[in-house]
Amino acid sequence: MFLAANGISGLRTAAIATTATAVLVLVWRLQARRQVRHAVVGALLATACAAAAAWTGQARGFFLVPMLMPAATTAACLLSLAADRPLAGLVTNKIVGGPPGWRSHRALHRFYAVSTVVIALLSFLSLAAQVALYHWSDVAMLGLLHILMGASWTAITALSTLLARRKIIRERATAEADNR
């Protein structure tokens, strides 16, 4: 919405159209009682992005708030690795039903550490690309990058969950074979 409205009528219209669309989606979700939490977060995020664009007086300001996500993800991954608690393990192990003591399983710990490093690298590369596009004031490419990153993160999450599940199944099979 922001990119289309900005291209047609400018920044002010884009900020208003984005905020209005976010509010309309929120109202629709509240009436339907479906995914209300996601709608609230989306409305707040869209409004914050529109406010950032209005505050900076530039369309590229819309992308300042979303740039915080890869920055925060990179930092969280690096901090979790420094604390020897890879973020991928903390999140994914619960989802795939891995063992509670996964940190003491060398192979699982290493798998989650490598996964966390990959996520940190991808997040950092995303941030670097966004900063470069922001610096060049390429609003259209920033918008495209955000769409592509959304699809990429969905794929990365699915792939890492699938690989973690396979790793846990192999670890269980190995443990059962050793116990025989």
UniProtKB/TrEMBL annotation:
It comes from the Bacteria. InterPro entries: UCP010219 (IPR016566). The keyword Aminoacyl-tRNA synthetase does not apply. The keyword Membrane applies. Keywords: Membrane, Transmembrane, Transmembrane helix. The chain crosses the membrane at residues 6-27, 39-57, 63-83, 111-133, 139-164. This is DUF3159 domain-containing protein.
